[in-house]
Structures are given as structure tokens and as C-alpha cells.
Design brief:
By secondary structure, the protein is of the alpha/beta class. It contains 10 helices and 6 strands, in the order H-H-H-E-E-H-E-H-E-H-E-H-E-H-H-H.
Length: about 270
């Protein structure tokens, strides 16, 4: 235990997520050894972010204005909404440049052990947004853990009656990972979410398009009558008569039984 202000600083730093007692002590002594101007700027930045940063009134993403930049951007697709847990998830998806719609930040996930239920999340506000009939798809991008899966299941059951298409982000093998180190759940989801390879998919599409007119023509044409008049079984019709084995009719009509060794009676 340290005296006064030092111990108080360590205690406050230890309350931050991901920082234990040892890390808090190391950061506290770094602050003591650092330049006073640097620490003053750090303290001012912490105070400024608490004063200016707020949550967007529409999607609840962090913003310094009433409505965030993504919700104000008219070039984004307003028919698709990606539902995430935290604002940092929005930044992660934006770095991929693969999604051009809008977002809705729940503010966490359902966790009964931590006392977080659906009432503590921004689900009611999401239902209010869905009154807009232009929204056609909801993309669930919650974390692939127990709390994220529970939140996704709850959202599907709650929003399915609205008739809006609900999709879930695919999960499976990571890029650059080794198959032998993947767990069973990841491998199972990778098999469930498998898809046709690009070249094979294109070839299959071309085959279906080329064969469609022929199939329609065959369906309209009358059924062809068989030219063979042989009404015998299909197995016998397939045998060429010239190659068929000849069966001798001479000799006894009963089956020939070979003489058995009578050594048992000896």
C-alpha cells in the first residue's frame, strides 16, 4: 500500500477494463515519471471527451453532434441496418469497406449474470426505427460468443413478426489460420456456411441457362415411343442374342450333384 494520492491513482486505474493491480501500479509510476505537460494534455483530453462526445440520437453511435456522420450521409444505403453491440464494432466493419448501409448500436449484449437484459439495450429504439417501410434487411453482427448468440436469438424472435429479412454474419475459419487448430464449433459453422466455389458456380449458372430452352422444348414435345417390340425384362433385352451363352438341352433335366466324399461314414 502506498500513501495518499499514489494509492488513489492506482485504485482508479485498476477500475479500468483489462487493467489489473500490477498494470495499474506500472501506469501510475509512469505518470509520476512522465513530463507534467504530457500528463496535463492527457487529463484535458479525458475531460474533453466526457464533455463533448455523446451518442447519436438515431443509431446510438458515438458522435460529437446530435446525429452522427454515418446517419447524416445520404449516399449510404438506408434499406439495410447492421446491428452491433458497441461503437467499436462499427469502426471495425467500416475498415473493411464491405458494408454501405447504416448501423444500430445496442450498447451491449444480453448477460443475465451481469444484470443486463433486453430492457437495458437499445432494442425499443430499434423497433421504432423499423417503422420506416424502406428498411428491407437487418444484419445481426453481434459477437460470436454466448452473450452475442443469446442477443441474436432474442432479436430474431422479437423482430421476425415484422416481416423484415433478418440475416446473420457468417462465422467459420479465419483467413490465414490452420485447420488443425480450429475448435469444433468453428469447424461445424464453417461446414454449415460453405458455398460453391466461384468458377464452379459460374459454370453451373451457364449450364442451367443453356439447358433451360432445351428442357422446355423437351417438355412440350410428345413422349417418344420405344422402337423395340421386345416386351421382355430390361435385363434380358440388354444382352446381345449372338453373344448370349448357349444352354444345352441334352442330358438329365435334374441338376447334377457332384459325388460327395463319404469319409464321415468310414
Amino acid at each position: 500500500m502506498y500513501e495518499g494520492a499514489v494509492q488513489e491513482l492506482i485504485d482508479e486505474l485498476g477500475r479500468l477494463p483489462g487493467i489489473g493491480p500490477k498494470s495499474a501500479q506500472r501506469i501510475a509510476f509512469h505518470i509520476l515519471d512522465a513530463d507534467s505537460e504530457d500528463m496535463t494534455r492527457l487529463a484535458a483530453s479525458i475531460q474533453l471527451v466526457k464533455e463533448k462526445v455523446k451518442f447519436c440520437e438515431i443509431c446510438f453511435n458515438i458522435s460529437e453532434q446530435e446525429i452522427c456522420a454515418i446517419c447524416r450521409d445520404e449516399r449510404r444505403d438506408g434499406t439495410k441496418i447492421c446491428i452491433v453491440e458497441e461503437s467499436k464494432d462499427v469502426m471495425a466493419i467500416e475498415r473493411t469497406r464491405a458494408f454501405g448501409g447504416k448501423y444500430h448500436v445496442l450498447g451491449g449484449s444480453i448477460n443475465p449474470l451481469a444484470g443486463i437484459g433486453p430492457e437495458q439495450l437499445h432494442i425499443r429504439e430499434l423497433v421504432t426505427r423499423l417503422a420506416d417501410e424502406s428498411i428491407t434487411e437487418l444484419i445481426l453482427a453481434t459477437d460470436p460468443n454466448l452473450e452475442g448468440e443469446a442477443t441474436a436469438v432474442y432479436l430474431v424472435r422479437a423482430l421476425a413478426p415484422l416481416g423484415i429479412r433478418i440475416t446473420r454474419l457468417a462465422s467459420g475459419l479465419p483467413v490465414g489460420g490452420d485447420l488443425e487448430y480450429a475448435d469444433e464449433v468453428t469447424l461445424a459453422r464453417a461446414f454449415e456456411g460453405r458455398r460453391t466455389a466461384g468458377s464452379n458456380s459460374a459454370a453451373a449458372t451457364r449450364r442451367n441457362e443453356s439447358s433451360a430452352p432445351e428442357l422446355a422444348k423437351d417438355q412440350d414435345a410428345p413422349a417418344a415411343t420405344p422402337t423395340s417390340t421386345d416386351a421382355g425384362p430390361r435385363l434380358f433385352r440388354a444382352i446381345d442374342p449372338e453373344q448370349a451363352p448357349t444352354i444345352s438341352t441334352s442330358g438329365p433335366s435334374h441338376p447334377v450333384v457332384p459325388e460327395m466324399d463319404n469319409h464321415r461314414n468310414r
